[in-house]
Structures are given as C-alpha cells and as structure tokens.
C-alpha cells in the first residue's frame, strides 16, 4: 500500500509540474527594448536637418491618481455625481475631459506601469502585483529625472518599489491593507499644504487608495463611497485653486491631471474587462483652460496608454522608447499648427522605430507606408509655410490631413507591435500537454486495472518521460543558442517528442524487467503471496443511474469548455448538473419506497456492483461457488479453515441474478460467484425524513443559485446579495448573518463534546462581532475607545479554531478530528467571506447534512460518491459569487485579522476564501466516508475507512482535474491569438491552475490519511 501512496504522489506532482510548465510558456515575462530615449537623438523635421526638440507649454505637473475611480463617479449622470465641484469646472468648459480605457488586467501595478511606460503589461503581472520590483524599462519618470525635473510622491508605496531613487521627497502607504480607508488618504493629504508653498519641485504625484479599499470592503453601493468622493473632490479643488494662484507669477501654466488606474465593478472589485472596470476619467485642469477656453466633455474614449506620449509632448521630454500610445489630439490643440505637426511626428517616429525592432519585414506594413506619406505632406506643409504663398485656410486643412495621417500610421504600427509582443514558448506548451496526457493515461490504467506488469511499464514510462522533458525544457530555456531539440518549429517539436518517447520506452523496459525479477525473488522466498501488492485495482466494476449521470455530466462539462461563452457562464453548467443530480438522488430514494417488482429491482441493482449498502441474501438462496482451489485454506480470525461454500453475507459486493463477479472479502478470496435466482434490497426502507432531506437539499440549491449573480451576461442584474448589502437593509443583513451562524452551530454541535460545543458557539459569536466592528452588521453594544476594526475579534476566532483542532486531535482514534476539521473550516468560511454570504455557508451545511442522511439509501460506488461531492464543490464555488473573471476575487479576505502587510499570509487567506466552497465539500467527503464506515445501525455498511478507499478518492479527484487540464490546455494553445485571450482564456487558465493546486493539496491530505490508517 505504501508504494501505491508514493505512486499517487508521483501523479499529482507530475500534474502540478505540467501545469506550472504550461503557465510558464503561456505567460512569459514581457520583453522590452533596453535603453532609454535620449533628447540628443531627436529626429529632424521632414526634409530638413533641424533636430530642435518640441518646446513645453506647461511648467509644473500634478497627477492625482485615485485608485478605482470609475468614470461615472465624476462624469456620470446628474444624480450620480460624486465630485460636484470637479463636475462644475467641467461643465464650465474649463477643462479637457475624456474617457480612458485601461487594458486588461485591471489591477494596480500593471496599470501604473502602463501609465508610466506607455506599454501593455503582460497578464502575468496579475500574479506579480503583490510583489512589485524596480521597473528597469524606459518610463516617464526617468525622462523627467533626465531633464532635471524634481519629483515628489505621496501615496501607494507600489510607486516607491517600482521607481526607487526617483523622488525628491516621498512617503508611501501600504496599498494592500484594504481594511484602512481613512488614514491611507489622510497621510497623503496632510502634505499638500506644505508642498503647495514649496517651489523646489516640478512634478507631484498623489496616489489615493481609500476609494479602492471601500470598494473591496463593502462594494460600489456602500454608504462610505459618497463621503470619500467628496473628500477627493475637495482635494482636487484645493490643488486646482493653489495652482491657479501660482500661475499668476509663473512663466508657464501648471497642469493638473485627475485620473484613475482602473474602474470598479458593481461588486466593488476589479481585475476583469467589463466597462465598469476598464473605463476611467481623464481630466486635464489648468489656468490655460479657464474662462471657457477648455473643451466640452464628450464620451469619446482614448486608451489609457495614450497619456504617456501626451504628457511627454506637453512637458517637452522624449517619449519613452517602449511607448505604444498615440498622443491625444485634444490635449495638443493649444500648440501652434507647426508644433502640433511636430508633436505627432515625434510620436509616430518613436512607435515606428519600435516597429522596426519587432517586425522583420516592416517595410511592407501599412503603418510604414502611411508614415512615409505623412512625412511627405509634413515636408510640403513646412515648405508652404516658409514661403507664405498660400492662405491660412489651405495650411490649416493640410495640417489636419497630415495629423490624421500621422495618427493613422501610429495606430497601425501600434496594433502590429501589440500582436508581436505576446510571444509564447511553444516548446514548453507542447511538452506540458504531453506530460498531462501521459499522466491521464497512467491514471486511467491505475484506476481501472490491477497494478500488474503493464501498469509498471506505464509508471516507468511516465516517470522517465517527465524527467527527460523537464531536463530538456530547462536546458532550452537556460541557453540562448538554439538547436534542433530546442526550436519551436513543428518539425523540431516532433523530433523532440520522438526522442523522449524512445528513451522513455527503453527506461520503462529495463525498469519493469528489474521489478519482475524482484517479484519472482520475493514470491520464491514467500515474502509476497498471490494476494499481494499488485493484485487489487482501484476502479469500480460498474455504475448505476447516478453513476451514468455523473460520468456523462463530467464529459459534458469538459466539452463545454471549448466555447468562450460557456467559460464565461460556467456557473450555469454546474447549476444545471447539480440540480439534475439532486433530482436524480431524490428519485432513487422515492423508488426504493415503492412496492416495485423484484425483477425491476434486480435489474437496477445489477448495474452497480459496488454499492455503499449491500443487503444480506435469504438463507434459502442456492449458491454455487467455483473457488480457485476447492481445498484452498483461507485465513480468518488468525485461524486456518477450509471453505467449500461461503455464506453470501460475508461478501462485500452485491450478488444478483445470473451474474458473475470477482469479489474480495477480508477473510476470503472468491474467483466466481453466481446466483440462480433472488432479489436484493437495501438494509432498511427510507423514511419520510429521508425524502424530506432530498427535497430540502434541492431547495437549498435553488435558493443559492439566485443569491449571487455571477458570470458575464447577467452579473449586473440585482440579486439577493445586492439587496442585503444596501445601507437601508443593514438590519436584515445582520439578522440573516446571525441566523446563518446559529444554524451552523445547531447542525455541527452534535459532533463535539461539551467543551467543543461551547468553543464552537464562541467562534460563531466572534465572527459576528468581527463584522459588527467593521460596521457591516449591527453591533449588539457600543464600543468604548477607538474601534479595533475587528482585528482582535478575528484573531479570537483563529484561536478558537486551534482549540477545536486540539480537542479533535485528542479524540482522533474515533475520527472526531475530521468532524472538528470540518467545523473549523465552516468558521473560517464565515470569517473570510462577506457577511451576506454567511447564509450561503449555512445552506451548504444543510445540504451536506441532508446528503449524509440520504447516502445510506442509495446505491453507488466510492469513486462516484467522490464525483458527487466534487460537483457540489464546483457549484459552491459559484454560489459564493465567484466567476472566471479576476474581478470576483475578494481581496479584502486576505486582510482579516491582520494589522500589517504580510504577502504570504494575505495570499493564503485570499486563496482559502476563493476556494472555500470546494474545499468544504472535499472535507465533508472525508467526514462522510468515516461516518458511513462507523454507522452501526447499518449492518451491511462497507468499511470506507481503509487505506485503499482513501487512495480511490484521491485518484478520482486527480483524474477529474487532469481530464479538464488536458482539454483546456489544448484549447488555450489553439486560441492563444483569439480576440478573448486576455479576457476569457487567460483568467480561466489561472483559475484552473490554482484549482489544480487546491486538488493536489486535498489529494495529498487523503494520501496522508491512507498512510496513517
């Protein structure tokens, strides 16, 4: 059995290795052009040798970046305006106001990179967002420093990590401690008065975080949102007025830029690609625009990266050489016609130079042809302007045509570069897919057949293939020189795989020969009997009605992933499958209560030969046994006895009419058992209570479906959760959360001792007090002194969880540790999930209790039982409001109980919160497996607490995961240039990789249980 555990560990580790290798090939780090733009390398005017740079029109620059500032918070309808003073300036045409679209992923660190470099960060920056390192790429701040502009910064400390030693003065605030939405902004605002009186800086950057933190904590409809927007409005008004006063004594006017790094979804999060998350305001304020000299607001959108060349040209610094943005024409309208043409030329030349370095046959590109035509028109305009022989109208028309041509050339070149910057490591992708399919092949063989010589060959083949593929991939990625085995062309990949297969086959042949020799030696010495290590397979011998549904449903789900729409709305697939499963289980329970004929029952039970409940047969049943050896001596209760006939009640598998099965009992080994005529029945008839449990389980699933709208098409629709989090419904939210906690205690208290019951009650109470301290729920009493923001209460819950585990560990011989672990997990779910999801946790607990009560009355095998709990876990993932979009990840869960920033703890808590539902059902399966084995009221209950059964569960979960990965990795590879690659396939791939890690951890837990059993 030990070697089976090690082999299962090899399978899951190989699966994890292949997944990581695929992610490395699919999300490579973005490569940028090294070096920095230099003003000495400014291109000349077309047709001349004049390289004079563009003169700036603004002296000072102030950037106010409000994290998660959605466009409608400032530029929305009349009734939704959160910043009235700023909107008043816009309505007076004293600004330039635009809508800016951010590229996905809409998280802070990639957005800061885009705002400073003008490039499009890679999707892998989502993972790197919590560990920012110095940005070595050419950027706007470096150009400011090179031009001797002094920069001061206050706000999100991500800037300080990205741009070390760039600031004259700086003070950072922790951007990831989302529980704080007050001090994090006060620490920024308190520097404004002093800086407005100073003249030693040229650029000031203020990054406010409070709005984003409120969104993460309470959503976009929180009553805290209005006061925070008015606070930001006051800051903008204060700085704007101060700059206007300073401009009266300055040679050049100052520029105030108000923008957001990304938007905010209706749930208060971000990271996805919905309009609410990607659309932000872009507002230019200056004394130059006062008294109606600005422009009317229009909903015309520009790309957020267009801000980089715009600011560079407005302040007279070189455009960063990796920029892909196109200068905003509205912002350049205050230049003279000649300067506008010069600005568009500099922008186009910079992007075209980037095109030349990334595309081989760049001369044939449309952008190059348009740029050539634009330079000709520009040279003609300069000649006509110098001669003065044409009218101003003609010059104006020619200038507009030339600017449009420059802009079209720049956009065309940008689109081409964007398509080439996304490079995939095809070699790593193919090797990863090869390993995944190899793992799945071995899992199927391991599952369905005894582990004999053929299986040994597969294991050696798999291990050698994975080892050789890993060595080759590491070699190819660590050396720059290409070779026949490292190229990504199809021919080289085929040759590489052929060499891997041949070498692995040789290793498998040698290894299996050695194992066979060792087996022969062991058998000759009596160390291994015929019923030895390799004799027992893990797979079931048959399936029933529920099994057919589970197998077909699993296949349909995997098939549905071939459609981007089904990926976005995956929750609908799981809702349909679980509802069908609930109704099927209910129908099976009802059928056993009906007086059906014995033939019908026999026919049904013949489908499932490994039921949870097998019934004793009547004594009058004539049996015929053909033993391997009629005179074989079989060991039972340490005494040798000879059997010619064995009573049917000793066999753990159902025996049906005219059927022959292989059966195995702890006391005997039967080769063939046949029954002439009889029927089989469950140990006892289900009661009305069991039927009620089936109906209640189905009803709970229906209620949870409408609790949180998720997916893409219907997420904006109101749901129960949205209604509960409204400020006017705080009382109802409080009572529903309290009722959910009480219900959880009532369902779980029976599994604990008196001390455990008290500790569980204390944990539920502290969960409620934690949310009350944060102001989300009604507090039972008023707190004295400064509010703790729930840190002490959350830590108290963690202590109670530890005590419950200690109590369960002391009673581990009775397997109470599993029930204690499940109760602890329920407390953790209630603590981390948002308050409106506490009833969801309670309903899941009801479903688990109902399913545990129903299982003794239905006939299904252990692998299929594992699939039942796996389905319930998948549906539970979406019940709590998750989706395949990054925006639904609850960042605030990572800061529960923390008063400082700790990346490792935050990452673990966020992962636990996201996959709380699936992990709950995996732990519930562990408890159900033990309870079915120890149900003394059911005499025919199988022992599901053996090491073999733990391995069956672990292998079943691993097979489901591998099957999904095999299909989706191929799909992601084929669709890597699809329009939705960054909005659908890439986020889904990250979710699949994370869920694979979760399943690996669960499988290792079951392997540990098998080891200690």
TrEMBL record:
Subcellular location: Endoplasmic reticulum membrane
Source organism superkingdom: Eukaryota
Chain ranges of the GPI ethanolamine phosphate transferase 2 C-terminal domain: 685-1002
Secreted as UniProt keyword: no
Recorded topology in the membrane: Multi-pass membrane protein
TM ranges: 428-448, 455-475, 495-515, 543-562, 574-594, 794-810, 816-833, 854-872, 905-928, 949-973, 993-1012
GO process annotations (BP): GPI anchor biosynthetic process
Name this polypeptide is given: GPI ethanolamine phosphate transferase 2 C-terminal domain-containing protein
